[in-house]
Design a protein that fits this description.
- The protein has 500 residues and is an alpha+beta fold.
- It has 3 domains: 25-259, Vaccinia Virus protein VP39 (Rossmann fold, 3-Layer(aba) Sandwich); 260-341, Phosphorylase Kinase, domain 1 (2-Layer Sandwich); 346-497, Orthogonal Bundle (Transferase(Phosphotransferase), domain 1), CATH 1.10.510.
- It has helices at residues 2-7, 25-31, 42-60, 78-92, 112-117, 131-144, 155-160, 178-185, 187-198, 304-316, 348-352, 360-380, 416-427, 435-440, 467-476, 482-497; strands at 103-106, 124-127, 149-151, 171-174, 203-207, 240-245, 251-255, 258-261, 264-267, 270-273, 283-287, 291-297, 326-332, 335-341, 346-347, 392-394, 400-402.
- The strands form 4 sheets. Strands 3-2-1-4-5-7-6 form a 7-stranded mixed beta sheet.
- Helix 8 (178-185) packs across helix 9 and helix 12 crosses helix 16 (482-497).
- It starts with a helix and ends with a helix.
- The relative contact order is 0.08.
- GO terms for molecular function: methyltransferase activity.
- Keywords: Methyltransferase, Transferase.
- InterPro entries: Kinase-like_dom_sf, SAM-dependent_MTases_sf.
- This is Methyltransferase domain-containing protein.
């Protein structure tokens, strides 16, 4: 393993460039926030919507409500669809991560469910095999200014050809769909296809059908006598099955507890996402008992360079006690994944911003460690560039650990003095309402410099600081060399922390 680590220290460049089509299908669909129809004249769009609705209603009556035009085109199913959306939201919502969660609504019909969910989750894509329905859904989305997008894609045909990049999907909806798959492919193959999806997607919502609903269609005999037959055997395989509703049709959430990406495999008990508001930043985290898997989904705004930076930094810091142990890594079509040890303790944000205040001794000890980590990283990789409390863990013994190296670089991308000062400000109890704007001021750093021209540094005058921390802060405001400064203060604080 050590030889393997050494051999890839100098990683070969393999960036996924925006101008290429080197992205898998679902990755491309979720990357674009633009409606496939583009901008439309409002009156012409409304006229087209009404024509399409007449065609659709001739086939399915008022089966689907028209999102944004409910007064003119109501549906008896609106209440049911809104209930389903509420149940889905309750199960999936991770506060602050809504922008990152990718939802695929398979068999979306006119798109009401997808557009309703898009009120909370901006990244929702609906699939339909009927072009009239996808055109209608996209026109309704433009009319209602909804961010949901719709495409005529047959996911089950792609599934049979192993052409589904499920790593680009977080939530998959099969609402009132599986009976149609049974009619088309047969019960056994439909069940096998469902199991294949369930093994590769974290949240799958399935609405099942009763035989009695299809007696008049002459297809009842094709369906299982028990709708739940489609889910038999899942619990033995480790899936979690939760019944969300019984009427009018059984409605289930199925969650997996293990993830496989290339040669990487993790059994996980925690799933989380980046809190970035940028839709072109897509990172996902799986936490197991002892392991942690970080997934980078490449986009036009996040190429494979991000993944490579993280991997290179981890390889270069394996001798440091404060970094995770690297277990393995893999890069596939449109993604990169890194398996590492799970850090002990909790994010430093929980201690710094929590109700239980740190003692002065604890603050000093944490500050000294933070400075030491800055020095260690400076000597190994250059600049972490985002060494803030949310990227640090602290254990029960107040030992600090660092993770998230995707911004690591030999040159400063963020003002390192500003990062240091704002984190020390947090540790010593400082609070300002405009902190995000202050952090944003630390970028960019001009070439050949170490400070941002417009950097805003915190005011420590109201905080109760020990003399050594005061001296550190004062010197950080004017120090000419980051490497010399951080080495000097690591030595000073380490000496002060030692028992006399």
């Amino acid at each position: 393993m050590l030889n393997k680590l050494k051999s890839v220290i100098h990683l070969k460049r393999n960036h996924t460039l925006p101008q290429t089509e080197d992205f898998p299908l679902f990755g491309r669909l979720f990357m674009s926030s633009a409606n496939p129809l583009g901008s439309l004249n409002k009156q012409e769009n409304l006229a087209s919507i009404k024509q399409l609705l007449q065609k659709v209603q001739a086939l399915q009556n008022d089966y689907q409500p028209a999102y944004g035009l409910l007064e003119e085109y109501p549906s008896t199913r609106q209440e049911l669809l809104e209930r389903n959306c509420e149940l889905i939201t309750q199960e999936v919502q991770l506060k602050g991560a809504e922008q990152q969660i990718r939802i695929l609504d398979v068999g979306c019909n006119c798109g009401y469910t997808a557009m309703k969910l898009a009120e909370i989750f901006p990244n929702v894509v609906g699939l339909e095999i009927q072009q009239d329905l996808t055109e209608l859904a996209n026109r309704l989305a433009v009319c209602a200014n909804s961010g949901a997008r719709f495409y005529d894609v047959d996911i089950f045909a792609l599934l049979l050809e192993d052409r589904c990049d499920f790593e680009n999907i977080d939530v998959l909806l099969l609402l009132n769909v599986m009976h149609q798959i049974i009619f088309h492919y047969g019960l056994d193959q439909a069940k096998a296809m469902l199991f294949k999806i369930l093994a590769q997607v974290d949240y799958v919502f399935v609405e099942l059908a009763h035989q009695k609903d299809y007696i008049r269609h002459g297809k009842a005999h094709l369906l299982p006598s028990r709708p739940e037959y489609l889910l038999d055997g899942l619990e033995e395989l480790g899936f979690t099955i939760k019944k969300l509703a019984d009427t009018p049709r059984p409605f289930y959430l199925i969650k997996r507890n293990q993830c496989t990406l290339g040669k990487l495999h993790i059994q996980y008990n925690k799933l989380d996402f980046s809190r970035s508001k940028n839709p072109l930043i897509s990172r996902k985290y799986y936490g197991g008992q002892h392991q942690f898997l970080k997934l980078f989904r490449f986009t036009y705004g996040q190429s494979s360079e991000c993944y490579e930076r993280e991997l290179k930094a981890l390889l270069a810091t394996q001798h440091l006690a404060a970094t995770p142990r690297l277990h393995n890594w893999a890069m596939g079509h449109g993604y990169g994944a890194i398996m590492m040890s799970r850090l002990p303790g909790q994010p430093l944000t929980g201690r710094v911003y929590g109700k239980n205040q740190l003692t002065q001794t604890e603050r000093f000890h944490i500050s000294a460690q933070y400075v030491a980590i800055n020095r260690q990283l400076q000597e190994c990789i250059g600049f972490h560039n985002d060494l803030q409390p949310h990227n640090l863990f602290i254990d029960q013994h107040n030992a600090l650990f660092v993770f998230d190296f995707e911004q690591a670089h030999e040159l400063p991308q963020n003002d390192p003095y500003g990062m240091l000062l704002w984190t020390l400000f947090d540790i010593w109890g400082g609070r300002v309402p405009n902190r995000p704007q202050c952090i944003a001021s630390l970028r960019p750093v001009p070439q050949g410099k170490e400070r941002a021209a417009a950097a805003v540094y915190p005011d420590f005058s109201t905080l109760d600081l020990p003399e050594q921390i005061k001296a550190l802060v004062n010197e950080a405001l004017t120090a000419p060399s980051w490497a010399a400064f951080i080495s000097k203060w690591d030595d000073k604080l380490a000496s002060a922390a030692k028992p006399s």
